[in-house]
Amino acid sequence: MAQAETPAEGAAPKKKGKLLIIILALVGLIVLVGGGLAFWLLKSAPDKSKQAKADAEEGGDGEEGGDSQEHGDEHPPVYEKLEQFTVNLSDQESYLQTEVQLVVADVKVQEKIKARMPEVRDALIRLLSSKTPEELNQPDGKAALAEEIKRELNHVLGIKKDSKGVKKVLFGAFIIQ
Predict the structure, then answer these.
(1) pTM (2 d.p.)
(2) Rounded to an integer, what distance in angstroms lies between the CA atom of residue 99 and that of residue 66?
(3) Which of 11, 19, 59, 150 is 20 to 30 A off residue 33, Cα-Cα?
């Protein structure tokens, strides 16, 4: 009987050995996959920041570029206050007196607006004088006008993306008589 027990004891260590090899192989595979994943994540993170930086530099002059600023403002807002506008409305009986402030993407856009101020004023005067009092007194009349002004000014400045040019139009005063 002693001989019958020895082969059984010899078989048990072989099973433990195979199980140990399988466990070590799985642990090694997990370490390799985890290490590869960590390397890929760490390597790709700086690439994304480089791309965002390149997009910001490319789009900083007002031309169409990346979407780096759509993720959030990286700097405080830049405002450009325009002179007061007084125009006759299209019905020729009423006039509009308004003060306009622009929220722009960056200082470069602000400088571009200042450099092209005669074109900016002309575009705004033409747009404002094409409106009727009824259009402006609608519940969303001022909001619609602000959107039109934004589109028109970005067009005058040659900017295709709102996030790279005039981002918002604010009214300081708005009087229709």
Answers:
(1) 0.57
(2) 32
(3) 19
